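Deliverable D4.2, example record:
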Amino acid sequence: MNKKQKVILLVVTFVVVAMFLYPPIESYKDGKSMGYHLITTAMYHGENAVDVPLIFAQWMGVLIVGAIAYFMAKDKKD
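Output generated by the structure prediction step:
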């Protein structure tokens, strides 16, 4: 693993953790999106829930783009 790959891995990890801490929230009552909030604040009110399909889709997008970048940063050997 070269230096570029380590940086990409670190950035992808940071983004996934940040997305976990500030997930998309939806209302139980009407299913409307409430935006992005700190997970502890959003769960405190009891009327909101994490939009699980959306957060998984976002994570998959970040992981796919991160994997592509990781393999493109691989050292070329002649």
